[in-house]
Amino acid sequence: MPIPLIDLQAQYATIRPDVDAALRRVVESQQFVLGPEVEALESELARYIGVPHAVSCASGTDALLLPLLAMSPDPGDEVVVPAFTFFATAGAAWNAGFRPVFADVDPHTFNVTAEAIEPHLTERTRAIIPVHLFGQMAEMDPIQALADARGIQVIEDAAQALGASLTLPSGTVASAGTIGQFGSFSFFPTKNLGAFGEGGLITTSDPELADRVAKLRVHGGRQMYHHEMVGTNSRLHSLQAAVLRAKLPSLDSWQAGRRANAAMYDEMLEDVPEVLPPTRLEGYGHVYNQYTVRARRRDELRAALADDGIGTGVYYPVPLHLQACFGELGGRPGTLPVSESLVSEVLSLPVYPELGPERVAHVAERIRAFYGHP
């Protein structure tokens, strides 16, 4: 049976009337940039995430770039980022004028840790960007403590983790995007809450920082043709805001569906030693933007699944410290061994909420058969 890695048409079919009505509402208003739809979305997402300030922008990449620009870096300033993540995490640092410094990640959660970050901190370090990869938050308490002790800002890259949470040592449950100075989210169509194009969101508890990034997204000023700083054009389109508002009420049920599918994979692959399912930490609310395993003979398995009509993904095939564009930073093979091993082993399986038990079972059974486990 054909099973795509992602099926946005299946999602749209469940919410078509609400989305179509939202799009008509914007078209009839003829107000396409910022405006009441965007303001309403920002307010609704601030409540959902549990943060005082939410500022939308044009993309998840800009949701990283604008907080970095707000820091006004000097030449040579550094930002520590994980080597195993999507390119935008490091690309935004570079484009903001920082030097990205790459840290290795944990082999089980795929997330960067305080222990991996600390050796890379210098007197030039201005920020740390922990990534909540694939939908599980990084262990933020020690990372934030490390940053606070050195006066370093933390920008949570929560592009894949809207709605994810963790329980802090105090017992408080904290959502992604509420712990660091900034949280950065993406609404790329394949995210758990995806737009019909690009979109991003920046969260912060600091009203001054919120005001600064709100200005930066509109050429550096609140009043038209009056510019307090040099910003850029990163406004969210009202059509995208309307789509996201129509989808937001379904998000929690979609997250539950992803967790149910992930739990079924966990159970069915538990006794397959060639496959290591993702580790979910105790007290963490994983939202499974991707269900990513580590697999022996990964490429052969992927080809076999493709022959059976099952879509998979490799996120990511090259670690950031070995990307050609960062060659001048001096990254060398062998320096970040976990990231370098993951790129040849990781495989993301379909986990979207509309998948259902029958298709999850089919994927798991095909994996078992590939490795000779009936």
Q: What features would you highlight for this structure?
A:
12 helices, seven-stranded mixed sheet, three-stranded antiparallel sheet, Aspartate Aminotransferase, domain 1, 374 residues, 2 domains, 13 strands, 38% helix, Aspartate Aminotransferase, domain 2, globular, alpha/beta
Give an overview of the whole structure.
Helix content is 38%, strand content 14%. The chain has helices spanning 8-29, 36-49, 60-70, 88-96, 114-117, 140-150, 207-216, 238-247, 251-269, 298-307, 337-342, 356-370; strands spanning 53-57, 78-82, 99-103, 125-128, 153-157, 165-167, 173-175, 182-186, 200-204, 275-276, 284-285, 291-295, 346-349. It has a 7-stranded mixed sheet, with helices on both faces. The chain has a 3-stranded antiparallel sheet with strand order 7-6-11, with no helix packed on it. The longest helix is centred in the N-terminal third of the chain and has 22 residues, at 8-29.
